[in-house]
Design brief:
Helices cover about 35% and strands about 25% of the residues. It is α/β, with parallel strands linked by helices. The protein has an eleven-stranded mixed beta sheet with strand order 6-3-7-8-9-10-11-15-14-13-12, with helices on both faces. The relative contact order is 0.11.
């Protein structure tokens, strides 16, 4: 065990005690955060517009500040991006995380110096939570290299002098010694903007190193694994165990990992101990981290510069929707997540849906996007249920999945009744595609009563249809959209056929099957 590992162990044990105190009193932690945020921003333009100085309770705040997304706060964001000071948070914002996906084009999410520190503290908390799993856990990763497979760290300077780019580019500026001695792929390769060039360069650099820790989106890490195995002349099956026998921890987030887990495990020998830890970072703030190996729930970070509100998904989009605080939520209810942050986001709808699986400590699971659902026939299927159904089918049929998405298939001259169509790229296709479709359908029937009602007698909907597409289909589709690498991900589902039709149009479609 190195001196660095010993020092890290001491540091993260102290951090863990702080995390445990916050989790034991989530309401107290959140109330202190709420009051601190309001006091700090009271003198800003937004704080004056909404009379923050008169707000005493959350009920006062709800009356003063309506929920809005990026488009709803566009005037505020434009002021901030134009370089105005004290718009919604004291001072001028020097960094913006660029994301996409709104009717206003690219979003530029402000990252204040306080938010940057909060994000860095949360990232380090990963090791504190991992240390809970037993003696030697921290040393097992700190004695080797740590690979961070994110987007390009290159930043672009805009008119007001601020820097804009991928969140990973802003975050890596916070990496300090001694972590710099462990960090890979190095700042030079992290700067590469072309994903295809970057993944090849990273594979060449790390294939001979003692990598102990990997973090990144599962779909992009899989591509790295393929490149590394090819460089070493190894088959993918069990190949990474031979390249990195000491690889101990994979940190993932952004998507439901369950459907991809069987594909991921193919790269490792059955005897290889690989731990998994899920995180929930967003451009708007670092939200939660998995705190127990045997529990998929992620502990909500209640003392890290974010005050959370929760809108029942059944009320999402209504101007009078209920807004709950952490002491008011209930287990297993889907909530649309609303953030108030130390970067000046207020009652901000980030578009994510979560469920609580524990209240003390507060643990959540990511349940999808509030705009990613299927309700073409009154079935009310959410993204979490789509992912769970694909995971169940992959396990039942022994057919690891690479990527997938789902959409409604509407009635037409060939189909009297509608259905759901799943477009799936397999690592190993099932021997019986119809059985895979039946397994998805069965899990949806179990999970969703509305779906079950619509499926009765095949009157409102018929069974799930699965269309298998060739290897590389989803990668090519993402490349065409300029969405390779970083935090870009394939939408789990949509309530229209835009994504599915684009994917199928660019693919030599294999087989369609229905039960």
């Amino acid at each position: 065990m190195s001196l660095l590992s010993l020092a890290a162990g001491f540091y993260f044990r102290r951090m863990d005690r702080r995390l445990a105190r916050a989790a034991a009193d989530p309401a107290g932690s959140q109330n202190r955060t709420f009051q601190s945020l309001l006091r700090t921003a009271a003198g800003t333009w937004f704080g004056k517009e909404h009379d923050f100085r008169s707000i005493r309770t959350h009920a006062d705040f709800v009356k003063a500040v309506p929920v809005a997304d990026y488009v709803g706060r566009l005037d505020m964001f434009r002021r901030i991006r134009d370089g105005q000071a004290d718009v919604s948070w004291p001072g001028r914002i020097k960094f913006f995380a660029q994301t996409s996906g709104t009717t206003a084009g690219d979003k530029h999410i402000p990252i204040s110096s306080q938010m940057n520190k909060s994000n860095a503290a949360a990232a380090l908390s990963i090791f504190a939570y991992y240390g809970r799993r037993g003696p030697g856990m921290i040393a097992s990763v700190f004695d080797g290299k740590m690979l961070f497979l994110g987007g390009s760290t290159a930043l672009t300077r805009i008119e007001n002098g601020a820097m804009v780019g991928d969140l990973s580019g802003i975050a890596t500026r916070s990496i300090r010694w001694p972590l710099t001695t462990r960090y890979e792929p190095g700042k030079d390769l992290a700067l590469i903007s072309s994903w295809e060039q970057k993944i090849q360069a990273v594979a060449r650099r790390v294939e001979s190193l003692d990598v102990r820790f990997v973090t990144g989106m599962p779909s992009w890490v899989k591509i790295l694994f393929d490149h590394v195995c090819r460089l070493r002349g190894l088959p993918p099956e069990g190949g990474i165990s031979r390249v990195w026998p000491n690889l101990r921890l994979f940190v993932h987030g952004g998507v439901n990992f369950a459907p991809f887990r069987p594909t991921f495990l193919k790269y490792f020998d059955p005897s290889h101990r690989l731990d998994f830890l899920e995180v929930y970072p967003a451009s708007e703030g670092f939200i939660a981290i998995q705190d127990r190996a045997d529990d998929p729930g992620m502990e909500l970070l209640t003392d890290n510069g974010i005050f959370y509100e929760f809108v029942p998904l059944s009320e999402w989009g209504r101007p009078d929707a209920t807004r709950l605080t952490i002491e008011q939520v209930r287990l297993d209810v889907p909530y649309s997540l609303v953030l108030n942050t130390n970067a000046g986001l207020w009652a901000y709808d980030i578009g994510d849906v979560v469920r609580f699986v524990s209240l003390r400590p507060p643990r959540i699971v990511f349940a999808g996007r509030n705009r990613h659902f299927i309700n073409a026939f009154g079935e009310n299927i959410i993204g979490e249920q789509v992912s769970a159904a694909v995971a169940a089918a992959a396990e039942a049929c022994g057919a690891p999945v690479v990527e997938f998405t789902a959409a409604p298939r509407y009635p037409d001259k060939d189909h009297r009744v509608g259905a759901h169509q799943y477009v799936v790229e397999f690592h190993d296709p099932p021997a019986d595609m119809a059985a895979f479709a039946r397994a998805i359908d069965a899990e949806l029937l179990r999970l969703n009563n509305d779906y079950s009602i619509k499926r009765r007698g095949d009157l409102g909907m018929t069974g799930v249809e699965v269309t298998a597409v060739p290897e590389g289909t989803f990668y090519n589709w993402m490349a065409k959209r300029g969405k390779l690498g970083g935090q870009h991900k394939v939408p789990v589902c949509a309530n229209d056929r835009k994504y599915v039709d684009e994917i199928l149009a660019g693919s030599a479609v294999a087989r369609a099957s229905r039960p």
